[in-house]
Amino acid sequence: MNVFRLAGDVSHLLAIIILFMKIWRSKSCAGISGKSQVLFALVFTTRYLDLFTVFISLYNTVMKVVFLVLAYATVHLIYMRFRNSYDSENDSFRVEFLLVPVAGLSFLENYAFTPLEILWTFSIYLESVAILPQLFMITKTGEAESITTHYLFFLGLYRALYLANWVWRYHTEGFFDQIAVVSGVVQTIFYCDFFYLYFTRGERTSLIKHHVNHTLFYWFISTSTFSTGTKII
């Protein structure tokens, strides 16, 4: 544990709480992509299966459980409790265009050909593109609430801080997880663009509109750069 990872975890948690509280307080999920939230729930589910096999620390276990609970609670609010406010017509991104290549890549590029390792790898690849349905929805509707941009900001900050965490661990522990790092770099490149527009243009929809194609381009380019290595939990 170091300050960059701790700050990254806090930023990640804050992003999820911001979104959850927005839906809960407004009693509406208007403008929120249920598909993105389902993908994030799938990310946490496939990544945290080691809850049943490995104990690292109380902090690690608690954070995993919190992320899982909040992810599924958010999905419940969108598709069950406040489903009347869910804009399914504009939340029309074809998630199979993400799931199929991600699943295929996780079988081709992983650290060990075992169910848990393949699912862990799947979660890493999927996280890098899980936000695309949300961005596609914003682009399609031409609307974005300030709370949504705050949510995206803290997600981007989480990725940037985790890159700093990996740099720190490489220099202090010799740790290098190539799959996670490359996926994180690709995702952070996209958020760097978002950060620039966030601070220079304010919280307008225009600061998000053109990012979908950028993210797809960066992610598909990155798929050719993955190679095997040693994963350390």
Quick structural summary:
With 233 residues, the chain is an all-alpha fold. It has helices at residues 3-26, 34-47, 58-81, 96-108, 115-127, 132-141, 146-173, 178-201, 206-209, 211-222.
Q: How do the strands and helices of this protein lay out in sequence?
A:
Layout: H1 3-26, H2 34-47, H3 58-81, H4 96-108, H5 115-127, H6 132-141, H7 146-173, H8 178-201, H9 206-209, H10 211-222
Helix pairs in contact: 1-3, 1-7, 2-3, 2-5, 4-5, 5-8, 6-10, 7-8, 8-10
Give a quick set of tags describing it.
globular, disordered C terminus, 233 residues, mainly alpha
How would you characterize this protein structure?
The protein is mostly helical and 233 residues long. The protein has helices spanning 3-26, 34-47, 58-81, 96-108, 115-127, 132-141, 146-173, 178-201, 206-209, 211-222. Helix 1 runs parallel beside helix 3. The radius of gyration is 17 Å and the shape is globular. 35% of the residues are buried. Mean pLDDT is 82; it is low at 203-208 and 210-233.
